[in-house]
Structure formats: structure tokens, C-alpha cells
Amino acid sequence: MQNYAEVVRDFVEKHATGLTVAFVAGAGLLAVRRWLAGGVCRSKVRLDGKTVLITGANTGIGKETALDMAQRGARVILACRDMTRARIAADEIRQRTGNGNVVVRKLDLASLQSVRDLAKEIRENESRLDILINNAGIMMCPKWKTEDGFEMQLGVNHLGHFLLTNCLLDLLKKSTPSRIVIVSSLAHEKGRIHFDDINLDKEYKREVSYRQSKLANMLFCRELATRLQGTGVTVYSLHPGVIRTELGRHLIPTLSLWKRVLAMPFVMLIKSPWEGAQTTIHCAVDESLAYESGLYYSDCATKTPAPQALDAAAAKRLWDLSASMVGLA
Ligand SMILES: NC(=O)c1ccc[n+]([C@@H]2O[C@H](COP(=O)([O-])OP(=O)(O)OC[C@H]3O[C@@H](n4cnc5c(N)ncnc54)[C@H](OP(=O)(O)O)[C@@H]3O)[C@@H](O)[C@H]2O)c1
Ligand SMILES: *[C@@H]1O[C@H](CO)[C@@H](O)[C@H](O)[C@H]1NC(C)=O
């Protein structure tokens, strides 16, 4: 015992500098990690008696958000395209929260028919809808088309949600104060809306398509907030952070090996799904946001979006175009 302590002391004395450097670097790394983790939703608000619908809630930040809503006592509807994965997620959420009021519903955002069917079912069978969370998303897939012939990323990330939201507005208005949360991304900053070629038929670039769809989320949020002024329904858009989820499923396999190796050190710095869900949860429940609408959030605080996301004329134009594309006009 005595001997062991001496050996340790000896080692520490010999390597004092090295150990100090290692300690400081470790603490620094932890601090950076904590800083990157961003804000945490501190609201303790309960949602007993309220209903929350979340799209794409079987995995990633959607599932974490659903778990949090269930913990707060809400009736939670997981709207998902893969019913097997959805049921597994719902089972897990029920088990971890003790909230039995967690249900799954079929929703494929790449099909307008599926969107209409879900909206009809909700309108017919739900007495209220307090929080709608447009979370589902697809990123940087190949040049794919939805069932209705729309470019896939615009179709799923924007058009499907545009139709779904519009079809649920009456129920949201009956349940005021109610909220609509739109999960966008920092990627909107480099985006533009290709009004002359909205499906990117002329030239498809997967990142151009993703950025356009996330800018469309931002413009939708603003125009929707304008249209809902005075109704008691408020709207929020957000960037959740960079998070370890399945979102990279179409991108990662196409990257060269060296790019993947280079990316490795950064992987430990990106957010966990729990951390990534915090801004969505903040927008969905935090009392301090009750009278804000049409704004953009990141790390549980408001953020100024890119200038093209503040373009009211473009927001109006995109609304009209989207309405005619999904058959609402
Ligand atoms: N992860 C990030 O770093 C990051 C950064 C910025 C923004 N975001 C945004 O955060 C949101 C959630 O992404 P995530 O990171 O949690 O990704 P994820 O783990 O890939 O989850 C995406 C969810 O969307 C669903 N989905 C995809 N296509 C759908 C369709 N056609 N119909 C219905 N649901 C569909 C997926 O269902 P399946 O499992 O059945 O495919 C899944 O449940 C997205 O809007 C994304 O753009 C994420
Ligand atoms: C409403 O619920 C009932 C009973 O579960 C079901 O039979 C009916 O199909 C649902 N309505 C819609 C539009 O799905």
C-alpha cells in the first residue's frame, strides 16, 4: 500500500507538466463539448389533457421530443411512415414515461394522399390538437420523386408538412392557445427558392435541394404566423443543432473513406438526440414564448435568420405556389 502510494507520487512528480497539460486539455474539451451541447429547455410545464402530434417520431430528435412530451403528461401521436419502427418507439416511450397515452398513426409525407388520410383521421377522431411538431425530414438523398412527382426533399420537408398543417388548422384554432413548431436548419442560410425550377429538374444537386427545402420551412413559418395573427395559434421555426441521428443515412455512404476518417474527431463534439431535441421542446412548451410567433430559434433562444428567410414577398409567393402544388388553392 505504502509502496503503491509512493509509486504514484513519484509518477506525478516526474510527469507534472504532462499531467497538467492533459488535465487542462481534458477540461477544455469538456467545456467545449458542454458549450456545443447548447441550451436546455428549463420549463417544467405539464401537458396533462393536451394532445401533441409529432411527425417522424420513431427515431432521432423526433423520438426524444415525443418522450419529453409524454413525460409531461400529454397524449402523444407519433405520425410515422414505418409502422413497425413507430410501434417499437411508442412501446419504449410508454415504458420509460409510464404514460400509456402514446399512439402511432401512419403518415408518409411523400404522399399527399397519406397526408390527407392522416389529417382526416385526426380531425374525425381527436377532440383537440394543442401542439403540432413538423419534425420529419430527409437530407441529401439522390434525385428521387414523391408519389405526386415532387422532388423528394422539397416534397417531404416542406410540401407534405404544408398540406398537413393547413388541414389541421381548424382543430388547432379550436384548441387555443396552440402552437406549431417547424424544425428547419442552419442549412437555410445558403438556400434559395428556385421559383423557376422548384423541383430542380434542370439541375439536381442534393445539397441545393436540402437548403431550398429548409429555407421553405422558414418562409412557411413566417407567412403562417402572419396569417394566424390574432387566432391564438403561434408558430416557431428552429435550428436544432448538429446532432448524431440517422439524418446522414443518404449522405454518409457516398463520402470517401478519408472524408469519413477526417470527420471522426468531430463526431464526439456533436449533440446527442436529447440535446438536439431541446430547442424543439423549448418552442413547444416554454411559457416565455407564448406571445411570440413567426420567429427563429437556436439553442433555446431566438436567432436572426438569413436575410432570404425574412423576405415577405418570397414567403407569400412560396405559399401560393405550394398551395397550388398540393391542391389547396
Ligand atoms: N441531425 C441534424 O444534425 C439536424 C440538423 C439540422 C436540422 N435537422 C432537422 O431535424 C429534423 C429531424 O431529423 P433527425 O436528425 O432526427 O433525422 P432522422 O434520425 O433521420 O429522423 C428523421 C425522421 O423523419 C422521418 N421521415 C423521413 N421521410 C419521411 C416521410 N416521407 N414520411 C414520414 N416521415 C419521414 C424518418 O422516418 P424513417 O425512420 O421511417 O425514415 C424519421 O422518423 C429534420 O427535419 C432535419 O432536417 C437535423
Ligand atoms: C376513427 O376511429 C374509428 C374507430 O377506431 C375508425 O374506425 C375510423 O376509421 C377512424 N376515422 C378515420 C377517418 O380514420
Describe the protein.
By secondary structure, the protein is an alpha/beta fold. The protein has a single domain, classed as 3-Layer(aba) Sandwich (Rossmann fold), CATH 3.40.50.720. Helix content is 49%, strand content 12%. The protein contains ten helices and eight strands. The protein has an eight-stranded mixed beta sheet with strand order 3-2-1-4-5-6-7-8, with helices on both faces. A hairpin with a 2-residue loop joins β7 and β8. α3 runs parallel beside α4, α6 packs across α10 and α7 packs across α10. The protein is globular, with a radius of gyration of 22 Å. The model has no long low-confidence stretch (mean pLDDT 95). The site of 2-acetamido-2-deoxy-beta-D-glucopyranose has 4 residues, from α5.
Summarize the structure.
By secondary structure, the protein is of the alpha/beta class.
